[in-house]
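re: ur question from yesterday

yeah so i grabbed the chain u mentioned. its 451 aa long if i counted rite. heres the sequnce exactly as i have it in my notes:
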Amino acid sequence: TDYHWVKDGYLVEPYRSTAVSITGIPDTLDESKLTTSCVGTHKQSGEKIYGTNSGGAQCQMKFLKVGDYTVEASIISSDTEQVLTTSMDVQSRYVRRDIRKLTEEDKANYLNAARTLYDITTCQMKFLKVGDYTVEASVISSDTDQILTTSVDVQSRYVRRDIRKITEEDKANYLNAARTLYDINTADGIQIYGENYKCMIYFGTLHLENSVPDKYHDHLHDGLGFLTQHMSLTNEYELALQSVNPSVAMPYWDFTQDMVIIRDKAKANKRAVDYQDLWELDLWQDDFFGTSDTHLHTVTKGRWAYTRVPKISRETEVANPYGYMRAPWNLDVSPYITRFHKSCGDNMGSKGDYETNQWPTCAIHHYAVSSIDSWAYFTGYMAIDAHGGVHRLIGGAGGDCDNWGEMLDLLGPEKVSNLREYATFLGRFVWRESTCTMPRVQEVIVIIGVR
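ran it thru and got these structure tokens back, copy pasting raw so excuse formatting
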């Protein structure tokens, strides 16, 4: 098209078929035996469009975006095998025209689009309950008084979304509701929010007592009920959140993304993967779940600052030696929820110990759903390989075990290193095997990070 106002360069219009013709072909070439291919690259996005050969030194292209393109053309002669190449810069812009001079196709496209703006009439609704609704709509014309009615059946359901992709409003609603479950006990919460309310002491007790009913069993983690038990616990937790704020749906955390992010960071910086990079990600900032202080090993800023671990009031309840709602083998004396992010001072994963300290990856989950055909194996694999490393790397182990280097002369470097590596397991193993009895005195041997 002749754009007379364009003095330099080439102009094309998006979504219009454009003929790209190459001039200056040598007279020695038979134009009937030429094949032309064209590729356009959008300079801003890098997206490519491909033309179709329309005979001779010409191809048809349709530019799909506004912006600047570089068009590269290759002309091949079938009888001489000679290849000619050229390139040009073009601008893709919309052009407004006199409505009387539009083509019939352009006129129809414009009028149909304008009609659509009149036909699509919207209204805002907020559905307050889960269930099935029939929505009836009436559209009234103010100039003709004509009334149009229609109806549609809709389903109202909660949708669980990736916690990184929920809106800021949804994030605040979820985290504030979760904070409420820490701050208000069950009895008071039921009076305020209704019968579905349960506080975090309830969920912590339920999880702990079913994990440690005695020395020999774990009803939540070691049997075939790992997935179903935790699904049930999550459902009850979600109901409690919704009693506080009915707009909240339980988000999920795709923690395989975290490994991708820190691997990409390591690759960009040409170094090995460092698991300590995990704690710089968005989920551990003050507006999410907070950053663990390197001295106190607890969150000191944001809504989760200095969150306390409940004290156990009855001897029959499961508790650690200091009376906190922690596993019996957990010798953490801190009154706050703790995260060490290390194992007795060592960076987990630094030695490539992926089997014991692996942060779960996409490959691990893909193997589980594509290659495992046994429910017994699948459940155990999901509990340990596909999930357990998250707890171990967040909680970690710390305390006096940071000084286990004093045993180097007795055990040697390799054994001391292995003890540190397996520190998060040691307390559990020795307690369940009755190798030792945990004290009820103020004597700290090793502090194990909690689940």
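noticed a couple things. The chain has 13 helices and twelve strands. also The radius of gyration is 33 Å.
anyway ttyl
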